[in-house]
Amino acid sequence: MGVREIAVLGGGNGGHAIAADLSLAGFNVNLYELSAFKTKFEATLKRREIDITGKARKGTAILNKVTIDIKEAISDAEIIIIAVPAYGHRTFAEVCANYVEEKQIIVLMPGTCGSLEFAKVLREKEIEKDILLAETATLPYGCRLVGPAQVAVRIVAKIIPTGVFPAKKTHEVVSDLKELYPVVFPAKNVVEAALNNPNPIVHSPGALLNASRIEYSKGEFYLYKEGLTPSTLKVLDTMDKERQALLSGLGLKLYQCKDALDERDSVLGTTMAALFGSGSIDAGSTMKGPSNLQDRYITEDVPYGLVFMSSLGDMLHVPTHTMKSVINLFSVINQVDYFKDGRTVEKLGIAGSNVDTLNKFLNEGMF
Questions:
Q1: Per the residue annotation, which of 301, 317, 337, 341 is the catalytic one?
Q2: Residue 366: which region, alpha, beta or left (left: phi > 0; alpha: psi -120 to 50)?
Q3: What is the CB-side half-sphere exposure of residue 32 using CA atoms within 13 A?
Q4: What is residue 287's predicted lDDT score, i.e. its pLDDT?
Q5: Whether 301 is catalytic
Q6: CA gap 20, 304 in Å, rounded
Q7: Which of 21, 203, 240, 265 is catalytic?
Q8: What distance in Å separates the CA atoms of residue 11 and residue 247, rounded to the nearest whole number?
Q9: CA-CA distances (angstroms) from residue 142 to 67, 190, 276, 361?
């Protein structure tokens, strides 16, 4: 095994699952969380162990280090995995910037084009080290923390499209990542990986069209069990067609694992089921949420998923009318201008690009 040292940044559901599963796979794993979240992270910090159950490796994983010291976490790590919501990407980039080392691979799981934001932060801070950035379309697991230092994995991804920035370095990065996850598959670039993230397409309309039910239920709501009715799926399907138009316009593709489609998943087959397989809806139905309209299903997937796609569509003259309707309505509901606050092409440093110049930038790392 070539890769040995891994740092996982983020002490939430995904971070715990990644750290525990890879530790049980034989890697030396450091787990880091921001000091602001130390209280919620206290049990893992003290134990240096995570109990993991479900569909991944099972058992009690003993971690190499558990820390709130970023230098300690990433020093000598060959691969740094950042498993935080998209609204945390810039914060983690700023925290890491002064401590990253030559030839380290930094992977956002998932990215939603956060790798470009990360690269922009490194440029702003004049960090000139040879750092390779990558992002996946999805977390490797559908998982939930079920107690202090305890995580349950309900489902694992069957294909993980992964983009690298710059894309000309894809082979060397993906070959290392495959040691961690054999289902990692090379995307053409980070935008292709970002547009293959199913969450904004599923979560946003699902939450919007069940807004009253979410508020009335006071936490007792299951999106995949009760929220994806035929009418909701029509909106979801229309948004997915807008996403596919973006992919097509850029010469990119949508990835699907071979068993993604069955009768029940006929609409969702190009979204969640595409990466997790046809059993994903049943697995998702066991996961509660969203519990309110400030949940990350909205506060991440609308401004960092839908706004990114809509902004990209505006730049490339690809209509995203339904996405914009969802963004507008959630802006009203939460009294936030998501178009202003979200992830736009301007904030990623790619505004004014056409298809050719954008693809060149994504491949070479410079305009």
A1: 301
A2: beta
A3: 22
A4: 78
A5: yes
A6: 27
A7: 203
A8: 32
A9: 24, 22, 9, 32
pLDDT in the model for residue 199: 93
pLDDT of residue 264: 43
User: What strands lie across the sheet with 141-147, from one edge to the other?
Assistant: 59-62, 49-54, 150-156, 141-147
The pLDDT, as a whole number, for residue 175 is 96
pTM to 2 decimals? 0.93
In the chain the beta strands, taken as DSSP E runs, fall at: 5-9, 28-32, 49-54, 59-62, 65-67, 79-82, 105-108, 132-136, 141-147, 150-156, 160-165, 184-186
76 is annotated as an active-site residue: no
* Distance in angstroms (rounded) separating the CA atoms of residues 194 and 247: 10
Measured CA to CA, the distance from residue 7 to residue 204 in angstroms comes to 31
Is the Cβ–Cβ distance between 274 and 254 less than 8 Å? yes
CA distance 32 to 65: 8
Residues whose CB is less than 8 angstroms from the CB of residue 186 and which lie 6 or more positions away in sequence, other chains included: 161, 162, 164, 170, 171, 174
CA distance 344 to 211: 26
Neighbours of 66 (CB within 10 A): 25
Q: How many CB atoms lie within 10 A of CB 2?
A: 7
Q: Coil, helix or strand for 300?
A: coil
- Separation of first and last alpha carbons in the chain: 36
Q: Let me know if 218 is exposed, middle or buried by CB neighbors in 10 A (0-12, 13-18, 19+).
A: exposed
**Positions in the chain short of pLDDT 70:** 1, 257-285
**Helix or strand (DSSP H, E) at 339:** helix 338-341
The Cα–Cα gap between 77 and 70 comes to: 11
CA dihedral 358, 359, 362, 365 (to 10 degrees): -80
Contact 276, 158 (CB under 8 A): yes
Residue with tokens 């923390």: 145
Token representation of residue 177: 């990542």
